[in-house]
Amino acid sequence: MSLPSAALLPPSVACNYVALWTNDLQVELTQQPMKRGKSFTLEQDVAICNARLNIFQDPFNAVSKPQYNFWDRIYQNYVELTGDQNVRSQCSVQSRWKLIFGSCKKFHDCLARVEDKQSGLTESNKVLRANMLYFEHEKKRFAFNHCWEILQHKMKDLVPAKSPDPRTKDRDPNIHSSFSSHPPDPNTLVSPESDKDSYYIMESRKSKRPTRRRAEKEAHRRSKVVNTLDSRICDLMEQFTKQLAESDKKKAEVAERKVKVMEEMNERQQREQDDRIMSMDTSNMGPRARAYYEHRKSDIYFKTMGTLQTSPIWRTRASLTIFMPK
């Protein structure tokens, strides 16, 4: 979009004209589709995780660099590790961290479930079953194993603490004693809200589930998860064994067909060679050559006759010839 000539216009009109053209240019630039950048490399993912842990574990960063907020300091550390400030923006790095941490948290939950249910497994088997469980729930494989090696021992520290629920918020422990030991003064006005709060506090504490019952429910839920996981693994192993057997069977059939084809080709080549020898004219050959080829012709003849005599068709024709009336 080119700037029109406004040299012949009055100054006020020319200024308005340039302002309108600038606004149109900004609208045109904002309407252009943004191009997606290149995918993050493994080194960049590792640098993001290291930068996040460096700032998270260093308590002096907040004091030494108070002008930066938390993600400003993380991005500065990421640039120091990679040196690609002009390649990735802070917003891009922050979005990538959310994706990495979300996937690692889900994988951490899967691994925790496997460790709770499957005792006695090796670390490699635990990770393998956690990957299978992650694939079963997310319908895709876990793609951040390189980040998991860095974050696996810091997941509990990185998970943000849940905000307390106002409905289950702990109240003053002396409220019940004061409420029961000091009866309300009839001359004192009591608001409906205070009565309602006291009532709900008492009811919520009465309705708390016993610890034993909660533990039994949790054990029952975990046993169901273990049974489901074991059944799923058995099904996968059975499918794998069946597919392996079918593959071996197909390979054996292909090998058998190849052998049969090779035998047929050899027989065809031998017949062609025998036919060529049988049709050779030995009258112009020397004595030795004539004797050799006559001997070969005899061998071919007796071999062919022996093969024909053992065939069912030859036997049928021979029997018809014997019993046929002259």
TrEMBL record:
Keywords of this protein's UniProt record, alphabetized?
Answer: Coiled coil
Organism source for this protein? Prunus dulcis (Almond)
Organism superkingdom: Eukaryota
Which parts of the chain are coiled coil? 237-272
Q: Where is this region: Disordered?
A: 159-224
Q: What is this protein called?
A: No apical meristem-associated C-terminal domain-containing protein
One Pfam entry name: NAM-associated
Domain (No apical meristem-associated C-terminal): give its ranges. 140-300
Alphabetical list of PANTHER family matching this protein: F21J9.4-RELATED
Regions of compositional bias (Basic and acidic residues) in chain numbering? 159-174
